């Protein structure tokens, strides 16, 4: 039964490249060179109404760059940074693609573009040794936002070193115009040292296999979109985020704190969902998130698997200038005493339920440990060692031991700006904690009694004196 069909099938397969060569599927006459951009920038929208023959040239380089303050990493890149260059073409375009591998590279590389229809997405066709360049072409048949990545063995390692980016295939009719477009790609990184451990970090295959990421970041480093580098927009702007996830392992729960996505092209496809709080961006996938800015302030981009945001780096800021719309968001209007039990309690002294006052150093240390565990351990760690590059150590801290009154002030007022503790610089914020004089005295006495510190006993009277001196 199958016999007569087989040669027929074979003939059909053989015929298709012929048909192309014969010109049934024409090469577009319009030629152009694609504009490529580094994150967070996006190439301009495509306005032409016809397909073009588009040239894309990407250069692979292996470069040492900043992963976090004091932490460097050897990234393997498409175009010099992570993520790779943003590529923007139109549905129906014929893309002439050249991959160059810089002579200084140690590894061969290639590219698998998810926008490609064809074996390996171009991977085999672009296998490129250091100091070589390869070329292939593909037709952008499907509109959508696609990840591209290196697929050279060991594939996971090439992706883990930052070899991914986004290619947008605009639908023929184009995307609706917006005021701002940004390019954001999440990736997880596996380093020989722990998060924040300074110096040039190597890649840890073991942690990568365990999917135990040290860093989860947007656009290739901790702080790529904070401070001076925050994304900028104005009240009233419509914003479009092209969001990708290079992985290699983790799925992103992409969220912007204080915003609701009016529209999400989920999974980077053509359909939209409305009024979305958090959208899932798979490893090797994407999403397009759109929203209008109704009020000013800082809006924070996170992976809502939230330890990744606050402890591994997956955090960026969209800074929106313009007046806040107080009807949309009032800010805090009041903070007043809330005492549901009624009037009698309101007249009681506010510290009536405080722990008994310590009468000697031993009691002070014991009480101080409770204060420490409740208020300090989350940042300075239960053993006082801190977190490199984020929270300074209290264990054997030269800063702590040098000046008792300054330590008291730190706990009363919080601390910000650059400080040097045991030779390492920190430039972060310790919040004001609102502790009683007794609690401050106890917690500092506890801290001074631990971890090779100087053993001072701090009395509540001394805390009161420091408070009064301000
Ligand atoms: Cu590679």
From TrEMBL:
GO terms for molecular function: copper ion binding; electron transfer activity; heme binding; nitrite reductase (NO-forming) activity. Its cofactor is Cu(2+); Cu(+). SUPFAM superfamilies: Cupredoxins, Cytochrome c. Cu cation binds at residues 109, 114, 149-150, 158, 163, 304. CDD domains: CuRO_1_CuNIR, CuRO_2_CuNIR. Residues 363-451 form the Cytochrome c domain. It holds the Pfam family Cu-oxidase_3. Its EC number is 1.7.2.1. Keywords: Copper, Heme, Iron, Metal-binding, Oxidoreductase, Repeat, Signal. Residues 1-21 form the signal peptide. It catalyses: nitric oxide + Fe(III)-[cytochrome c] + H2O = Fe(II)-[cytochrome c] + nitrite + 2 H(+). Homotrimer. Belongs to the multicopper oxidase family. This is Copper-containing nitrite reductase. It comes from Haloferula rosea. The lineage of its organism: Bacteria, Pseudomonadati, Verrucomicrobiota, Verrucomicrobiia, Verrucomicrobiales.
